[in-house]
Amino acid sequence: MSERILTEVISANPAMIRKQFPLLDQQVNGNPLIYFDNAATTQKPVQVIDAIDGYYRGYNANIHRGIHTLAEKATDAFEQTRSVVRSFMNASSMEEVIFTYGTTDSINLVAQSFGRKFLEAGDEVIISEMEHHSNIVPWQMVCAERGARLKIIPVNDAGELIMDHFDQLLSPRTKLVSIVHVSNSLGTINPVAEIIRKAHLAGARVLIDGAQAAAHLPLDVQELDCDFYAFSSHKMFGPTGVGILYGKKDILNEMPPYRGGGEMIREVTFEKTTYNDLPFKFEAGTPNIADVIGFRTALEFILEISKPLILQHERALLAHAHERLSKIEGLRIIGTAREKLGVVSFIIEDLHAFDIGMLLDAAGIAIRTGHHCTQPLMKRFGIEGTARISFSVYNTFEEIDFLTERLLKIIKIKRR
Ligand code: C6P
Q: Are residues 23 and 142 in the same domain?
């Protein structure tokens, strides 16, 4: 299909895309479902559901262990996903692709393995004020254990990192910088290439939390030159319980295993255990085989539509939502960065975010409300939480218009 036709398919005829998502075709509270909670998790196309089903029905077996036919088939399918992930993010080898249980697990792996080995008393780890709790708490834990300090890059009123402040924080004491690529609460796209370049000049390693970026933005870990990159399958049309940690091979080789058990060993005696090679050194125990297999199909779904076209559609939806919502009196958008993606967080005068969520749900519109696991960021804006809508490829302009109408109605009733 030509690029122009594909754009039209997404923007003007989303039915083509939507019919691949059986869940979307339902009524919720008497209205057609409008699913605007994609930053929490996306829906799954039927191909992904079938791939998981196909494994359980056809070749369920444990991997990397058996020599029987089913075990070989399952191992092949599992390793095929690793190969697709490698190329999806352009890692230089399969050894740099580690399966985890999600972004949170990937970050904890780095904190517990890299952090415990390399952080010393007086060292510093830099994160930012807009981090998800998964990119705060693991560093607090390991810093407390190692006597290291956590330094925070503040954000401005638009929800952008104050980069001058970052420059001042960097020093020879900085061992690691761990930054979110796209903020789940604000939608801000951070200048990660610049952050990586500057951190490397200061001699620090860099982890990028790509949970909200991997499905949307171009991803080339070699070009970015990040040391680690973490993301979750379930935010990219894949199943829950699968995540990826990319790490540069030389660093991963220097890091000790995070968990001990089967699969990650070469030889075990009661006196001494030697460890397996990468990536298996970090994959102890039976992994989430079925869902890893399903994740491959999810990545192929993204590649088939094409990432640039998905991004183009989501950018158009974002612009439309900003345009419509900013006209609503008493509504304030939290997060107005110049570089922004896929998320609109807002508050409405005299209305609690939770109530907005409940009232929209009554109209079949699924959104997320609360602090979005970014409590320090909410504190920065002096609020408890927001109502958040987040887009995916199957959302439409009409859905945004319907949401706008409902919000106007809710406000009108409230003001009576
Ligand atoms: N954000 C949201 O609704 P897990 O749960 O491990 O797949 O992802 C954690 C995570 C890490 N970083 C960022 C930027 C995230 O957005 C998330 C998950 C969801 O915003 C659930 S709180």
A: no
* Residues having CB within 6 Å of any atom of ligand 1: 39-40, 102-104, 132, 134-135, 180, 184, 209, 211-212, 232, 368, 372-373
| The one-letter amino acid at 345 | S
Successive 10-residue mean pLDDT values, the chain, 416 residues: 50 79 97 98 98 98 92 98 98 98 98 98 98 98 98 98 98 98 98 98 98 98 98 98 98 97 93 95 97 98 95 96 97 98 96 97 98 98 98 97 98 87
CATH value at residue 167: 3.40.640.10
Report yes or no: 239 and 81 within 8 Å, Cβ to Cβ: no
Q: 318 with 406, same domain?
A: yes
Is this prediction's pTM over 0.85? Answer: yes
Same domain, 270 and 315: no
How many CB atoms are located within 10 Å of the residue 91 CB?
Answer: 23
Relative to the CA of 134, which ligand 1 atom is closest? 11
Q: Please identify, among 266, 281, 303, the residue that sits at the C-terminal boundary of a domain.
A: 303
